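Page 42, continued from yesterday. The earlier attempt failed because a stray header line got pasted into the input along with the sequence. Redoing it now with the clean sequence only.
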Amino acid sequence: MNKTIFQTLISIFALLFLPLFAVAQGETNIVQGVVLENGTRQPLPGVTVAIKGTNGYAVTDTNGQFSIKSRVAPPFTLLVNSVGFLAQEIPVSNLSGSPIEIVLIDDNRLSEIVITSRRRKETAQEVPIAISVVGGQLVEDAGAFNVNRLKEIVPTVQLYSSNPRNTTLNIRGLGSTFGLTNDGIDPGVGLYVDGVYYARPAATTLDFIDIEQIEVLRGPQGTLFGKNTTAGAFNITTRAPSFKPGASFEVSYGNYGFIQAKTSITGPLGKLFAGRISFSGTQRNGLLYNVRTEKPVNDLNNLGFRAQ
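This time it went through. Structure tokens are written below.
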């Protein structure tokens, strides 16, 4: 009796759910196509083709063909990506059965890094110097508002500072001494802002204002930057005034009473002149506590203003 009931339940289950499985299997869609290069019409291997919003994707074979199995019914969008070509989004409204033909356009225009480390504009690839280049946007995103923070993203740079009079900036371990008051000692690493030389290491503790690019040059640079560049040089370029009106404002908060504000305004002053005004202020309580004076030490209180 129990066996009969069990077989009956199995039969009912099969009648109810097998059609659903059949329908589910029938809803699987196969997206097929070929990716060609613009101009030559040659097939492109290694191109990633994905269905937007799903995990379904495929990589084209040596013949540029791809096939994706998906339960997503049209309409959907194909995302096509390959190195050296413009990424494309291909809308698919229906699957007619014929392969989808996708043509990619060349995008071999790689952005070149332009530097002025040899007193003229040229690409970093043409300069035979060990150099690191950091863009202003990366500096802002990393929160590197001075050289002490910049050393965290640029290799071989060291900055030691207990106070402005006892500050040393080194590259590859060379630069100036630390441990004694060195505000009268010429440094071994030069700091240049828009071509202007900052003669004392204490200047490295100042905040960056409206930075466009920072170039860190390693090794002796005395030929172009003078005698105080035995270990290297910092060549800092600030943002130039623009005839297009613009403004930016940024405020940051942190522990130990840290607060930082930055603002910049630029625009035309006439038909032939443009100006830019920038301000930066940083304040933070000391990280060390002096038990004798009962006050924190090593605090920050920097103010900067620039007009161009």
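Notes: Helices lie at 2-26, 136-141, 147-150, 222-225.
Reminder to self: strip header lines before submitting.
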